[in-house]
Amino acid sequence: MFVKNKIHLKIVCVLLAFLCIFCSVSYASDSVYVWSSESEPLNNTTSTTSANIVSNNATNEVSSNNNPNNTVTTSANITDLNLQCGGAVLIEMNSGNVLYDHNMHEQLRPASVTKVMTLLLIMEAIDSGRLSYTDKIPCSENASNMGGSQIWLDVREELTVDEMLKAICVVSANDCTMAMAEYLAGSEEGFVKQMNEKAKDLGMNDTTFKNCHGIDADGHVTSAYDIALMSRELLTKHPDITKYTTIWMDSLRDGKSELVNTNKLIRNYKGATGLKTGSTSVALFNLSASATRDDLSLIAVVMKAPSSAVRFSEAQKLLDYGFSNYEYKKLASKGDFVKEIAVNKGVESKVNTILETDSGILITKGQDKNIEQVIDMPEIVSSPILQNQILGSITYTLNGEEIGKVNIVAEKSIDKIGAFSMIEYVYTKWFSLFRI
Q1: Do 238 and 153 sit in the same domain of this protein?
Q2: Which domain holds residue 297?
Q3: Which of 9, 193, 275, 345 is the residue whose CA sits 20 to 30 A from 241?
Q4: What is the CATH number of the domain that holds 42?
Q5: Which residues are catalytic?
């Protein structure tokens, strides 16, 4: 009798609990609370000192529709660096913003800086799975007879893609460049066609490639800006290339062929990550130099410098200018926790919210204190909720001007509570209580 009464009591308690919860859920508030600019921001950044993004008195130049990245460039030089070269540019790698311009659209001969595009197509083939670092690459008669910078490939030998990349990046080997082009496209002509198609896709409107290596040829031209575009594409989309472009000294053929990097900044400049040198008697001395310090990544391009020493000193001058005057401010990191908010009529009463993507901005140094953030997110959300469902956003401003926006999303899915799930939930809770 005692056992039977106990069972009846448990059933009654479950039904009463179900009734109470159902009533409370049915009449829960659906009101939404929106965070305002007066609300306390996550990082307490409330300074309102006036400042401009990137640089003062800058005029923005939106790149052509041929550029898939729709990069906005800033064409303004606050300081005259008195460059001696024929053309130069300094860009910030993440945004593509132009920080310094010296005849950046002047069409000039690139010499071996051409190989940045060759390397880009090789890395695309690797990352797409069409090519492997361990694949053996043969050497044709055409490749072995290239001349210029080379490692003296023999038609009877094969090198791996890894070894070919090392030779191209470190000593600018023309023979290895030709061998890779022929292997990937069947002929140099086919490969050059791919180079020009990629250049068009990137918005390199000053560029026409005639070969894959950069030996002087009529009509083989580009500009400092276009070199910066393809350098940025290579470094941002295929960062593994820096495993080769940062090598100072190495060897091939079991140590028989020594390699010393033609880019002296790799040894002498803090944070240098590459990228490519080039020179001929007609093109003179060219360089695409990249470096990263404190999350700020820069690309400096120098074309038609009168000497090798000048190209390095002017690239360093450009990089120094960038690191001295600008910084890259990380605004948000993908997956960062924002806050926990209530869930109405869900199998769970709360859900964690996180940031959907990374976000950052290039600013002049010292402006990070001027950045404010405004959170727009409800206090309560209704179920069902899907994982990564957008629940709100954070807008970042600098002196009232929007500089970034990141969505706030649900960390996980939460189903809507139903009659069966509610009974199951209540029974589980009460069963646990009676066991105690």
Answers
A1: yes
A2: 63-327
A3: 193
A4: 2.60.410.10
A5: 112, 115, 172
